[in-house]
Design goal:
heterodimer; A: 537 residues; 4-stranded parallel sheet; B: 344 residues; Fumarate Reductase Cytochrome B subunit; two-stranded antiparallel sheet; 13 helices; 55% helix; binds iron/sulfur cluster
């Protein structure tokens, strides 16, 4: 499907600002035009994951081939979740519809669709809650903002809970901390119970379940692609790095999103990790079994998240490593921070993490025994234990995108900035209201990074892209750095559309460029093969 | 329609009280039975609602980390935006409750002349909300003079402060003005901002009208309609000491005021007004961002089906052997997709 031109899309976005339907939102019927919805999940991944009602189906068709009892399933599941999650129960009850969250959502900004206002996104579910759980809702129905769960409502949920990237920007602004991402998580979970999900999530989740990673890379394929990165490193730096796999007794198990093994530009970040580990002589191993840091289970259900996440500790125990080091990934770290130790811990077979190079005790990770690579590297830099030549990133004017999960689902803002400032000379911040805890999503998070959805993703990423535009115009920024694999997958398309000339990289790609390795040859190109500043003669 | 219905309900409530006492002489009903009933429903309902929330556990630590985590020593953390312990959490909650911290961040998004979203600080809701809640609270405390004997010093001084600017006779209470202004503002923005109007429910207008009506009836009693303050005090003291007396010449305005207040109390625990209690329990605000250090416990954590390493090796043994990967079980060539219960 051809995408509209930039001018057309901009006009479309502007035209839809502040336009509301005449009818009340409950009366507006959900439609499925191409580009505005994700494809439904296929039968095969559903079967692998034992999901209910696996089938091939098409959301744009009237018949969703639902099981006869789909509605009871959702109703029952809803009640169970209300009993299990205070968050859900509270968020169903206490929203005052003040609207503070309304214009904070990138999808609302980009589409102008009122159902993308976090508050209304929440009402899609609250309305059903009221019908079943409140006196007013039971007695007064619509007048009390209550309505029956119907197939139309299900379709509306499908569209709008997959038009939320679970980015939590709204939750920062809500006076009661109502996190619409949490509501979306539950809505998706309920839909899954009734056999309704999107293929872009269930596919990778089933891959991850079987092969250990979202891309479905079998063990030898992982080795092969890392092998080719090792060769690239050799030809660029003259250094031979020696990563090992599934090695018992290594001190550290390194877990990173599988896209870093395979997909451009994640591979350049991977090269950065490999160089860094070689530089400091780290005793680490990679795993083919736990070859995925990311977790599309987070976008499916709490249970699925646990099913996928459990591999990491299991593998750490089998390999008898001391602790875990994790690569650059957004939702992986949301899972590590919010869920992992609770779900699959305690990891008492591991040791409290200590940097073998600097001796720093990472006591803030004493529970999970899982340290973020940005924390690890920042500590190395602080202790002057690595040799860096900042000038080797001089051909880059860099801005940093705070990934939603890392910022609002973990709280790491300074470490990556500290690292950038120590490996590069030209770093520029985007406008204040679009960074750190107020960062804007790339528009493709939470499993929405699928091709058929590109138009909506570009609209969802509009707010982010326009903030990039500010620094692109003012500071000639030509590189956006992010510590998230979905960002690295999504931004090339987004920036290519809205901000041609700005490339995407990971943090450790910059580290890898700057690292002065012992015995390396004079570098003329960076890790992606682009000429270094001053060397283009 | 919703606005009209909400207003109608409030007017009907006021009329009911008037008709009830003036025509039917139901002083005991409106002066004693309903207030007691409302108060106990409020107290009981409030507690039950809190308990019902409390009954559902907080299985995961999902705090919103709106500031730098506490990590490396040389990196400064944000103790209130991303608290690392109890003290920070208490600070965060208190800031939310007393100063509406999150609302203070509010921005307004609007397209700029460059056809890009621009963000401007938008503090009117914060200010309006703050004035509204604080005035309401102040007035509530000030009303203690009707329920205490002798009136505690702080209540009297609060009253004096409130009348500091001697406007009119009897002295105008500033908080009365603030309350009415802010409630009007809250109503006005709800209807004036199309998006907010679009999402508003009857349940959003009703409390505003009800509180406005309570305010108006209270003010009218003080300034416009002669009311027997001593009589009222006798009644309120009777109520609070469970020796209710009925005074039927306080004027029907008092009964209207009392009935509207009773209605608010009755309505409270079943409505969005419970945000007053909920704000303390919000898991995105009241948990410390320390879950990597301290294990958060989920009381219903259950085992799930996983794909174990053994199964993985069985699935891919040949490929692994071919790639030179170490194997747990090099000899066997059993393959299959068996599934087993994962570890807890
Ligand atoms: S900011 Fe919070 S309370 Fe206000 S409308 Fe949004 S979710 Fe509801
Ligand atoms: S979590 Fe993000 S995408 Fe979802 S409603 Fe909130 S702001 Fe929008």
């Amino acid at each position: 499907m051809a995408l509209p031109k930039v001018g057309e899309m901009t006009d479309d976005i502007l035209k839809k600002q502040n336009v509301l339907p005449k009818k009340s939102w409950m009366e507006v019927k959900t439609t499925f035009e191409p580009g505005t919805y994700c494809y439904g999940e296929k039968a095969a991944p559903g079967e692998i994951l034992d999901l209910p009602n696996p089938r091939d189906w098409d959301p744009a068709q009237d018949d969703w081939k639902l099981l006869p009892n789909w509605k009871e399933t959702i109703q029952k599941g809803f009640q169970t979740r209300l009993e299990r999650f205070r968050s859900l129960k509270l968020f169903m009850d206490i929203c005052v519809r003040c609207g503070a969250c309304a214009d904070k959502c990138h999808f609302y900004i980009g589409t102008g669709d009122p159902k993308n206002m976090p508050v209304l996104r929440g009402e899609l579910m609250r309305s059903v809650y009221r019908k079943e759980n409140t006196v007013g809702g039971k007695l007064l129905g619509k007048l009390a903002g209550a309505r029956e769960m119907t197939e139309d409502v299900l379709k509306e949920w499908y569209k709008y809970y997959y038009q939320c990237t679970e980015c939590r920007r709204c939750s920062v602004f809500c006076p009661y901390g109502i996190d619409t991402a949490e509501i979306t998580i539950h809505a998706r979970e309920l839909m899954h119970e009734a056999g309704v999900g999107i293929n872009q999530i269930t596919g990778p989740a089933s891959n991850s379940f079987m092969t250990g990673n979202h891309l479905g890379l079998k063990p030898h394929a992982i080795l092969n692609s890392v092998e080719s990165l090792v060769e690239d490193i050799k030809s660029i730096t003259g250094i031979t790095v020696n990563p090992t796999f599934n090695r018992k007794g290594a001190e550290i198990l390194f877990i990173t999103p599988s896209a870093d093994f395979f997909a451009d530009p994640g591979i350049f970040t991977m090269m950065g990790y490999l160089l860094l580990f070689e530089h400091i002589g780290l005793d680490y191993t990679l795993s083919t079994y736990a070859s995925e840091g990311g977790n599309f289970g987070l976008f499916t259900s709490h249970e699925m998240m646990k099913r996928l996440n459990s591999k990491i500790y299991t593998e750490a125990e089998r390999l008898k490593v001391k602790w875990l080091l994790g690569g650059e990934c957004g939702h992986m770290w949301r899972v590590v921070h919010q869920y992992m130790n609770t779900m699959t811990g305690p990891a008492n077979f591991l040791e409290k993490p200590v940097s073998p190079v600097t001796g720093t005790k990472f006591s803030f990770a004493d529970g999970t025994k899982f340290v973020h690579i940005a924390e690890f590297t920042a500590d190395l830099i602080r202790h002057n234990t690595i040799k860096l030549d900042k000038a080797r990133n001089d051909h880059r004017k860099i801005t940093f995108h705070d990934s939603c999960n890392i910022s609002r689902g973990m709280g790491m803002f300074e470490e990556p900035r500290y690292v950038i400032n120590n490996v590069a000379n030209h770093f520029f911040e985007m406008p204040e209201d679009t960074i750190r805890e107020k960062t804007f999503c790339c528009g493709s998070g939470s499993g929405l990074n699928t091709n058929e959805y590109m138009e909506t993703r570009l609209k969802g990423g509009f707010a982010r892209a326009m903030a990039v535009k500010e620094v692109q115009e003012k500071n000639n920024v030509n590189l956006l750095t992010a510590i998230c694999a979905i960002d690295r997958a999504a931004f090339p398309a987004l920036l290519n559309y809205w901000n041609p000339g700005v490339e995407t990289s990971g943090l450790h790609e910059l580290v890898g460029n700057a690292l002065v390795m012992n015995g390396e040859k004079a570098r003329t190109v960076d890790l992606r093969g682009d000429d270094l500043a001053g060397s283009e003669t | 329609m919703k606005i009209f219905s909400a207003l109608t309900v409030v007017l009907i409530l006021a009329a009911a009280a008037y008709v009830g006492v003036e025509i039917f002489g139901l002083y005991a009903i409106f002066g004693v039975v309903i207030p007691y009933f409302a108060f106990f429903t409020f107290a009981g309902g409030f507690v039950l609602k809190i308990l019902s929330w409390a009954k559902s556990p907080t299985p995961f630590n999902i705090t919103t980390t709106a500031g730098q985590q506490k990590s490396l020593k040389f990196i400064k953390n944000a103790p209130l935006e991303n608290p690392s312990g109890v003290v920070g959490v208490a600070g965060r909650i208190l800031l939310e409750v007393f100063f509406f911290r999150s609302l203070f961040r509010n921005t307004k998004t609007a397209m700029t002349k460059d056809n890009r979203p621009g963000y401007q600080s938008e503090k009117s809701l914060w200010l309006g909300g703050l004035v509204f809640h604080w005035s309401f609270f102040y007035i509530f405390i000030r009303h203690l003079r009707f329920f205490t004997y002798p009136v505690p010093g702080f209540v009297s001084s609060m009253e004096t402060i409130d009348r500091l600017f001697q406007i009119g006779l009897p002295g105008l209470y500033l908080t009365d003005i603030f309350l009415l202004l802010s409630v009007t503002f809250l109503f006005f923005r709800r209807v004036a901002i199309p998006q907010i109007k679009y999402m508003s429910l009857l349940a959003d207008y009703f409390p505003l009208f009800l509180i406005a009506a309570i305010g108006f009836s209270g003010i009218a009693m003080r300034y416009f309609v002669r009311t027997d303050v001593m009589g009222i005090k006798n009644m309120t003291m009777g109520l609070i000491s469970f020796k209710p007396v009925i005074i039927n010449d306080t004027g029907s305005l008092f009964y209207i005021h009392l009935f509207l207040v009773s209605s608010l109390f009755l309505y409270f625990p079943f409505s969005k007004l419970m945000h007053a209690g909920g704000i303390f329990m919000s898991p995105t605000r009241n948990l410390a961002g320390n879950s990597r250090k301290k294990r958060h416990i989920n009381p219903w954590n259950y085992p799930v089906k996983t794909h174990s390493y053994e199964e993985y090796e069985n699935d891919f043994r040949d490929a692994m052997r071919g790639a030179g990967l170490p194997l747990e079980n090099p000899g066997s060539d059993v393959s299959g997709h068996g599934k087993q219960e994962g570890k807890e």
